[in-house]
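Structure, all two chains, one model.
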Amino acid sequence: MALAPSVLAASGEAIEFPILTVLILLPAVGSAVVAAWSNRRPEWLRLIAVGFSVVTGAMTLWLLSAFEKDSLGATGSGFQFESRHGWIDAWGIGWHVGIDGISLFLVVLTGVLFPLVIIGVDPHHDHKRYLSWMLLLEAGVLGSFVSLDLFLFFVFFEIVLVPMYFLIGGWGYEGRVQAATKFFLFTMVGSAFMLVGIVATAVLAKAGVADGAGGGRVSFDLIDIVNNGSLDTSTARWLFFAFAVAFAVKVPVFPLHTWLPDAHTQAPTGGSIILAGVLLKLGTYGLMRFGVFLFPEAAHWSRALWLTLAVIGILYGAIAATMQTDLKRLVAYSSVAHLGFIVLGTFAFTSQAGVGAVLQNVSHGLSTGALFLLVGMIYERRHTRKIAELNGLQKVAPIFAAGFMVVMLSSAGVPGLNGFVGEYLILMGSFLSARWWTAAAAAGVILAALYLLWAYQRVFHGEPSDENKDFAELNIREAGVLLPFIGLIVFTGVYPKPMLDRIEPAVDRLNARVCAVAVCAEQPEVPVGEPEGDTESDTEGEG
Amino acid sequence: MPRLPAPSIDWFALSPLLVLLGGALTLLVVGSLTPRWPRGLYALAAAVTAGAAGTMAIFVWNDITDQSTDGGGSRLMVSGAARVDLFAVWVTIAVCAAVLLTVLVTNDYLERERMVDSAPEIYSLYLMAAIGAVVMGAANDLIVLFLGLEIMSIAMYVLAASHRRRPQSQESGMKYFVLGGFSSAFFLYGVALVYGATGETRIDGVVTAVNDNPLANNAMSLAGVALLLVGLGFKAAAVPFHFWTPDVYQGAPSPVTAFLASVGKVAAFAAMLRVLVYALPSFTDDYRPVIWVLAVLTLVVGAVMAVVQTDVKRMLAFSSVSHAGFLLVGVEAAAHRAGGADKGLGVSSTLLYALIYAVLVCGTFAVVTCVGRTGDSATDLAGFRGLGRAKPALALGMTVLLLAQAGVPLTSGFVAKFAVIRAAVDVDSYAVAIIAMVAAVIAAFLYLRIMVSMWIADPESGDDSREPVRVGLSTAVAIVLAVGFTLVIGFFPGWLIDLAEAITG
């Protein structure tokens, strides 16, 4: 799959609408418009922000419909909607964007979550700055998911920190400044290693294709490095870890997770939803795209470490979640557990596990995003997040309780809802290649049911105390925001096939790269395609 | 009586220097002989001088690149005392840009502090110091380099003490003078020892002498190199020679601090590259480990000490120490390739960093000057509290500049850091590259603290009774220029990188 000069020719011929570039620029422009908007007409701010985010979301949906599931893209690199322009030629850095099955649904998730958050969550003060940061955040996140140039990816990966920092610090709760700072610095330490790793990868791989003069130039282009670069094994292992540290902080993988509960708890509701929904996915996505894809041998070589950390994360996150007295902290720790599953699936290197991991990215974004939304609604009404101070809400707000129930069950991985599909595929796929780890991880599923159901029982069951008697029912706007979440949760749970079809080719290409340089422990004995059939019949039976 | 042979002088190549000199002398002489000029005219004269010098430098740059395509290129002149090459012109442009920005800030500062009486001296001292810095960048002789160093330093000592009613300013000037004089002596002794060992003070002469006779007087030349390093390390504010920095930066008038941090740093690193990489390449194996240690110490100590300060000027002083560490990473990379035909990326990335940092730090201190309010004393973190509400545009500008100093992408600061890291990785200095990036994270904490103060911190009682922050027109222009440069380079760094890499070509 050599990228001959035909690449240039091909991209030259196909002067298509650069949809991905527009997708990044649109929210960025929106952010600037909001920031520059006159203070005398604040009533338009929300509308402008909603407008920009809805149009961006619509474009991601268009991408979803136009994405061809078996296509390798115009250049044969496996990426669709590619566009490539020079940027900093002196350093071999270009503006190169494109998506495949792994990034597609993350882009869509981002496009869908942001308008919901902007519509559904009220920041209470300084609307202008809040909305401006929100849109900038969207641009950064989308940019990270579509970048196919290491430098460009790093730029977006880092730029995301700034709006998130200000969102947590400016609109969060009592410990917001400390939490925001912790978030910023933790992530930046990881990035410090990654930046050196990125530079070293590009400089050592020398994968650039000079105009007609063959290779030998330094290039930061992901596709160039994958196709033309050659790194010796030990170097690649070092570089892999330089990248992996940054992503492990972001995910977060077990010993590096300590920033997450603080950031989640202190962030405003909108910030928490985005943080859990898409920002953490930068880590898991990065591990796949820039960890495994760039350094397949190193990834396989170190898989025992990753699987172990993933399992520890699953169990630790679940146990810690059980112990929490703060509802938001509980959800935060449940994220640690859920993301452990994704890491497990990523490093199992089987088709099902990989597909499951990508799907779980989206599922976790939906269910945890919705959980944070609901916890935020509870806080709006009761000004507390303490589980002990809440009780009997089911009696006074049955519809709210029902919504919470569905989301909570989805997070717990109940069949028929989205959480099940991802977790099931991950566990099944991982079992083929990492039996013992999977056995331990499966316990996490049970623990998840434990802490979620127990929390639900304490908050919603029983007789409401005096303070909880006036707990307001879901209003129209809140219901309108919650409904898309529940719709997507149920749809993904019942009929995941369209998603699986689009994810699978990309994951298979990824695993093929790994298995080409490393002995994959056990090739899946189950023919590809069957697991989806299983899941479907399972879920349809249950749902 | 035999006529003294006059050295050939390429007046055109020296024109930036001559413009600066003319401006400085005119301001000093005419300014002291005439009654007070109308408002802002002194600053205008100084700014025009700096701008004209910078413009001439651009012409010289073009001239050199035009000629280097047919051979030629850099010119050795005045009997080999000066070498006007792209390196020297780059330094000139960086210095002129810094002078221009500083002058704009100083204009409003002098009005506010009722110091307009001393305006002609202050502006001509700026220009004098700039001459020294330019000479350091263009020196082809260690003695000439020393002259440049002294011209610059003496002007800076006086500038640091120029706020005559503030004892802190006096203290700052005195401290700087005593310690600076000390370090100059080290440098001069280093020059003497190198001369003793090689019989040469000319930079190209030293190289030939060492090459011809590699083993002669090794101990003496090594001692010379060590003393030169001490002298240069002091000017560059490298740990452990940094102790003057926080006190001097804090006490000096804020615009002067901007000047010290920008011009001082550019000149110090230009001199360091000239001495180490150009004059003493044969000793690279001896001094490179020292640079490595200096770089690591400077990065870490600067960043850590910056975090524990409460005064913004002191914070930025330590952050400038940390930035010196980044520049040393570039010097270390340059040292790997010293003497080779391929100079690598070390020299160009260091110079790129110096230019970008000079603009950044001028912009940052411009904001600090405004926030310092009358008396130049409200520079603790509390002075910044609520700036986001009171002056959102100023706070936004400061935020961009601080993010750039922290090395966040899409700002010039990231480009600078990336260039240096790339140079380091290119010569396999991975450890120092990683240490530098981690130090940048520690330093980021301090920029966050300032941002928290501006945007997030809750107002406290008494905040409203403070004197409001005023931004004068010329200061505003300076801030806009600095922020604009920061963002333009952040988004489109390609052209500047091409120019920087042309230096070592």
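Residues 351-382 of chain A form the longest helix (32 residues).
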